[in-house]
Inverse folding.
């Protein structure tokens, strides 16, 4: 009897240890990624629909590292920003539904990543930041949507991560890299990016490039809480 | 004995059920210094970022690729050029193209701009 309880408990633990529904895979969610195989990504300046003007830069500066770690070549946002401003293309919204081939011509990017921040709310009482955000990766050759994910993420700033589990080493790394940079907001944006981009199929600099179709993925829409 | 074995097997399973990916690159304090520079371009924040780039190029022991991350040579080169070291900067930018050929179109465009 004891054994049975132990066994069933451990199975439950095992199943929940990743806190994820196993119904989706990267391959089933994002088949176009495996057809197009983009290798270089241009990060478009985030579209900020919130009253918090700084939210744009929190996200703009914290997208490159997680994308590089996913195995992609990321056009340096620092350098791209100058060019985008010069071509009066710093407002990404006007490109959301237009042809993107010029970004292929100018930057050599296979895909452009659009982000729209719909909500940015800091709760002092709970020491959390709640973000509502959409990610949209579009091909610069045929304008098709390759990857899309959106949702609400609450980042708990009160506790340090360290229990790998959900997000693992990447978040730990990101958190420790930025803790001295004062602002929790950058950490929140980064955690949000890492969480949301986790399901993005791996790029060519990962050994798992073109081989991760069966990797479990979360839903295209999410609602979650993560520790910073 | 059996229980112990089951326990051990179970823990192995538990640990492996959530594969954490190893980082490809060492980033040092890039995230901090680049954000600080982006926020406010002072001689201090510029120097701090320049130091970070030099360190990233020198040491990549923590990442599995052992190669400088995308954009590092390019950003370093651009910042060098902006702080008066044009020749050195352009050499760095050319290294970006060498290591990451997919950067060619964009980086060549910037080099041309700098050479004007």
């Amino acid at each position: 009897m004891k054994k049975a309880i132990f066994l069933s408990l451990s199975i439950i633990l095992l199943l929940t240890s990743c806190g994820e529904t196993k119904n989706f895979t990267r391959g089933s969610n994002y088949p176009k990624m495996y057809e197009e195989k983009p290798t270089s990504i241009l990060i478009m300046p985030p579209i900020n629909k919130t009253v918090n003007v700084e939210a744009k830069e929190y996200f703009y500066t914290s997208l490159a590292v997680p994308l590089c770690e996913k195995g992609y070549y990321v056009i340096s946002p620092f350098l791209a920003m100058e060019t985008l401003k010069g071509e009066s293309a710093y407002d990404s919204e006007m490109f959301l539904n237009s042809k993107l081939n010029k970004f292929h011509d100018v930057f050599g990017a296979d895909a452009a990543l659009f982000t729209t921040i719909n909500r940015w709310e800091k709760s002092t009482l709970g020491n959390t930041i709640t973000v509502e955000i959409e990610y949209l990766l579009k091909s610069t050759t045929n304008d098709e949507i390759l990857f899309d994910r959106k949702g609400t993420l609450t980042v708990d700033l009160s506790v340090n991560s360290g229990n790998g589990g959900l997000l693992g080493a990447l978040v730990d790394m990101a958190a420790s890299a930025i803790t001295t940079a004062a602002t929790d907001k950058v950490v929140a944006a980064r955690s949000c990016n890492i969480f949301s981009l986790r399901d993005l199929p791996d790029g060519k600099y990962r050994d798992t490039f073109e081989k991760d179709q069966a990797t479990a993925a979360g839903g295209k829409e999410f609602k979650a809480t993560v520790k910073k | 004995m059996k229980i112990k074995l089951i326990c051990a097997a179970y823990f192995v399973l538990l640990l492996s059920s959530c594969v954490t990916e190893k980082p490809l690159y060492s980033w040092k304090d890039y995230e901090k210094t680049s954000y600080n520079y982006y926020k406010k371009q002072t001689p201090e924040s510029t120097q701090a970022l320049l130091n970070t780039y030099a360190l990233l190029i020198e040491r990549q022991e923590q990442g599995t690729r052992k190669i400088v991350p995308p954009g590092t040579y390019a950003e370093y080169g651009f910042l060098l050029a902006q702080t008066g070291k044009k020749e050195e900067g352009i050499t760095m930018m050319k290294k970006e193209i060498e290591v990451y050929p997919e950067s060619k179109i964009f980086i060549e465009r910037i080099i041309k701009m700098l050479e004007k």
